Amino acid sequence: MKQIEQHEHVNAIIYQSNKEGKSCCGDSFFIKADDEELICAVADGLGSGQYANESSSLVSEIVEEYGHEDVAALIDRCNQAMKNKRGATVAILKVNFSQQQFTYCSVGNIRFILNAPSGDYIYPFPTSGYLSGKPRKYKTYTYSYEKGSIFIMYSDGLNVPNMRMCLKHGHSVEDIAKQLETYTQDKKDDLTYVLGQLT
């Protein structure tokens, strides 16, 4: 499944596929942009199938409902929702267009890389583990970004040997998505990526 989101400030492609033999994807995502900001979340429910999907879908629902809150508060809400659930790894991104800044937080194996036109990379380290409902601390990062920067958030089902080079040599999100097609054929795991350019 591929979805394209276009807005004045962001152009994004979202790709998702199920693990082979599973009727639903254990990953979920949410993305929304308006004139002021972009909010995006990717969640990978532990395991695969229905119970993994239940956990990851909860994350999408929370981010959609409480998207006006800051990233730290959203991660905390997601963690509380994982009580008595399978649990999930989660990443949440919020971009403020007028300030040209973004805030990011990740717990577990969701990865994020941003490549700026100047050649700089931003690669915030995730907090290890996963959200399970138990109290824990998170690390949120805030950075400035250059217009034209390309970013990708992706679950561990996407295994690209050198994602930085892939972003660096891609001229557009469409071009990079085409390059990634080779790596989306392996259905050994659920796979989700959100690939976007901040304009």
Automatic annotation (TrEMBL):
Pfam families the UniProt entry points to: SpoIIE
SMART domains linked to this entry: PP2C_SIG, PP2Cc
InterPro entries: PPM-type-like_dom_sf, PPM-type_phosphatase-like_dom, Ptase_RsbX
E.C. designation(s): 3.1.3.3
GO molecular function list: hydrolase activity
SUPFAM superfamilies in the cross-refs: PP2C-like (SSF81606)
Annotated keywords: Hydrolase
Full protein name: Phosphoserine phosphatase RsbX
Gene responsible for this protein: rsbX
